[in-house]
Amino acid sequence: MRFFIIIPVILLSFELSAQNVKVSDYKVPVSEARNLRLTGNWDWTQDGDTVLSNNANGTLVFRQFYASLPLAWSFDVDADGSRTLKRDTTSTFIYNHNINVRASFRKYIWDNADWFGTTTINAQHQNVYQQVKSDLSIGYGYGRYINATALAKSVRIEGHLLEDKILEENLPGETLIAIANIIEREGEYKIIYGDTYETYWFNDIEREIKKAGFEYEVGKTALAVLRMRQVLFGINERVNDRYYGWLLSAGFLQPLSTEKRSTKVGNPNLKFDGRYSYPISWELQLNTTLEVFTPIDSSFFKKVETRAGVDFIYELGSRINFVAGYRFSMDKPIEGEVSKSHNLNASFWYYLENNIYLTVNSSLSKQGDQPTLLKSSMGLQYNLF
Question: Residue 181: enclosing H or E segment and its boundaries?
């Protein structure tokens, strides 16, 4: 009985100590960028009249994307090629190339409704291929499933700035959301500014803080940037992924061509996907997933693969995490017995800055008729001075 009395008290304490923003307040920002990078090099080595090397290689990377909640699309190209001189001759070269192209599109059919459609095309060609390898996937769904991890990082940054007395009070909710939007646009900053993007990224975050009327004391800017880096790059702490909402979708993956002309492309696969996440508080999170696959041929729903999972996250503090998860899979062949597997795992992660780093992991798995397998591990690091 005491256990059931304690739980509401704990949850109430989470609500009383909440920030000026909730996970479900997060809105996906609009982000877009385009970038083309070309790199190449050539080397020549000669010993007397003998050419030892005459090699060249180049790389092309193109990125263009637009991301928002109602509409998102992207077009990516990755290509590299090389020419290498054979060791035993000065006139024969080996040529290699690898080209990958990916285009994706997602659109909510009506901005004020939850129906959406997605399309993705992948194409690849290498020098060893006889033709381009490609596939097409198309899907439709209903629901809104929002990744609010950026907002969780924004709140974590605020917590550090309060602990270090850089801020005297909580930031307004709209400021936290604005910072989260900047965090989520990291890809845009990378494409536009390249290796120096962190400078512009952090400057824009600080600009939002100061726009809300908060100013740092002299000498505390460096500490603020340090705390931001720890959160954004997972240095000595971890921000677990945060989601809210749900969605159901169905689609198919159709191979269009294979790397060999003699290989048949095969039949498409139908996929059903369901997701649901509930952020109980900034400390507690529940995630569930379900996937079902079946070929679209004579074995339709006679051959089925099912995957399901549940995750429970409890962040006791910025450096103390407890994560537990359960995974279930079932494969039903056309003939024969159904194969099932269960996996239960739990991890405890504790880090006290510059002193103690402790990890505890355990898992329990069961596959078909095999004996239950129990695994556990523990790691401890303690800095004396």
Answer: helix 173-184
